[in-house]
Write a structure and sequence with these properties.
single chain; about 180 residues; mainly beta; Jelly Rolls; 5-stranded antiparallel β-sheet; 2 helices; about 10% helix
């Protein structure tokens, strides 16, 4: 598996959010309607008290495959995206990069891109705009320690059993591909 820059994964876009600050604090604006092909169905927030927390690498299959805009609104994360789309030039490649609240960068992920992260600071908060609702039946995780050989920066980590025992990349890609055929 090859680790490439996020901007080289087909369809992924990285952009700065609009923000303004004054004596009251900071206002950050996310505009998913400018990015999403199918509309916005949900907004989710991941609150992570401990540094080292690993979430993902998550994806959903059709009919609940989801576009996402992810941004770190507090703290920082080591972010991971994986291309599961068999028709993509970057199929099977993944990207790792840092997202943090200081830079206020947002990342648009088209359907077929799996996503995960490891918190680099305590009390890190991630914000998601999602193009599909959550469906446990159609939601999966890729093994974050398997064949992708991701070099997670913090060796002391906290992870759910489901995420720690996720699918291999090849099985995940097969599930995604078969869902498109239905």
């Amino acid at each position: 598996m090859i680790n490439i820059p996020a901007t080289e994964i087909e369809g992924v876009r990285v952009f700065e959010s609009f923000s303004t600050s004054d004596f009251r604090g900071t206002f950050i604006k996310i505009q998913p309607s400018l990015e999403f092909q199918g509309g916005l169905d949900a907004i989710a927030t991941s609150i992570n008290p401990r540094a080292g927390t690993i979430r993902g690498i998550h994806f959903q299959i059709a009919p609940y495959a989801e576009e996402k805009i992810v941004t770190c609104i507090q703290g920082s994360v080591f972010d991971v995206i994986v291309d599961l789309r068999p028709e993509s030039k970057t199929f099977g490649k993944y990207a790792t990069f840092e997202l943090n609240a200081t830079e206020r960068v947002q990342v648009y992920l088209p359907t077929g891109i799996a996503h995960g992260f490891q918190t680099l600071q305590p009390d890190t908060i991630m914000q998601y705009c999602l193009g599909a609702i959550y469906s446990a039946e159609f939601a999966f995780s890729i093994d974050p320690f398997g064949e992708l050989k991701i070099n997670w920066p913090l060796k002391e980590f906290l992870i759910s059993d489901k995420d720690a025992h996720g699918l291999s990349f090849s099985i995940a890609a097969e599930k995604y591909m078969k869902s498109l055929e239905s």
